[in-house]
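User: For a benchmark we're assembling, each entry needs the component sequences followed by a predicted structure for the full assembly. Here are entry 17's components. Please fill in the structure.
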Amino acid sequence: MFRALYTAASGMTAQQMNLDNIANNLANSSTTGFQQRQVNFTDLLYQNQIMPGAASTQQTTVTAGLQIGLGTRPSETEIIQTQGDFSTTGNPLDVAISGAGFFQILLPSGQVGYTRDGSFSTNAEGQVVTADGNPLQPAITIPAGALSVTIGSDGTVSVTQPGQTAATQVGNIQTALFVNPGGLNAVGNNIYLATTASGQPVIGTPGGSDGLGTLQQGMLEQSNVSVVNQFVAMILAQRSYESNSRVVKAADEMLQQLNQLAQ
Amino acid sequence: MNSGYYAATTGLVSRTEALDTIANNLANVSTAGFRANHNVFSSMLVSTGDSPLSVLNQDMNDYGVLSATQLDTTQGALVHTGNELDLAIEGPGYFEVKTASGSVYTRGGNFRVSPAGQLTTAAGDPVLGDNSKPVTIVGSPVSISSDGTISVNGAISGRLKMVEFPPATQIQSAGGTYYTAPVGAAVPATHSQVCQGMLESSNVNPVTSVIELMTAQREVEAMRRVLTMFSTEMDKTAAQDLPRVS
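Assistant: Structure for entry 17:
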């Protein structure tokens, strides 16, 4: 009886967390390079009151046991690694990754962060930086007065300078690949950090044989949040919250009936 | 004491126990790969030793108890997630997973690759291939065909082990959307297909669960009425009214 109350409470808590996650996905539906997350649930342990296969007599065994489950818990928020849509911006320093891989960003803490948000610009020194001013790694500096910047699909950055006909190569953008990108640690501002779960990054040339995606200049990867799916998930979360609260109500009313017995 | 009093009490206890299972099903309505448990009530004939019961005695001593929970093996809806390592099974099969306590079976296919390159479940336990060894996946993109063959970057690198169970197998829930079965019961899957980029949602039917809930609730109410009737009407008559000599 009291098990049912706690079991239903575990369901309600789980759906509440589900809704928190849906809210974050929807809030970030316009965030460049954002990857939506999905809460995965798992069932809790079972109380075995009768073990299946136990002897019911000397000749026969119980065909199905009596197992009482104790509810659910959210086990993880999985990062959905699908490709977001591309939007053309025309800005020469906007770069999208078509396929797997992350840009490497040097954070103020000295750590390397990983992002799929390729909306870069240059700082006062001409260095290519993110919207937060953190430099792209390996560092690339665009010379002052450059007429045009070209980023090749393999990450080669070249510039045309006044008075020169041939383009000058100023650097290469290298991207990082993880064995388990779902194990990256999101720290906000579109930045992920490597963890023991994600494994160490494999750094390479975009479009190369390592399986890294190619780069697309003048484009940005939009978030991969599917607003329709999130709304459907929201309705489901709301309804299952409701049915779990009905269980609480039913358990309460049963207890009430039992209490009336003593009158 | 009246045997009906005990019959109603047994009914009351079994309905409150049934609520626990209904609550667990509804709590797991969003758990991928979860299979619902159904309550099985059975009547228990209380006999006194070897002496055969009279027909009247049989009627009076037939109690309803919650005797078992049975795993619902109907297919859950497949939901598209787009993650290349989310795998759903269409059909009666299970993936085999190696845990510290031996082989377990699961339909919760939200897998990932560990830093060591092993395909694991969300809990980090390795998923087995058809050679009964953990599956290793190195590189991307990964594509998994309907029979479980894994190709990485166009080259075949292994095959997932999928098993099925004969109809009468006693499958037990072990928590964490893992299921256990008696040793040797698993046979290679023949009627199951893997769907990549999908997850099987829980097979709990919210409609029938809520109806079961309402039924259990009303039955408790009915049993309570029976018990009240015994104590307020019959016992009172027997204990207070009958002994009175006018």
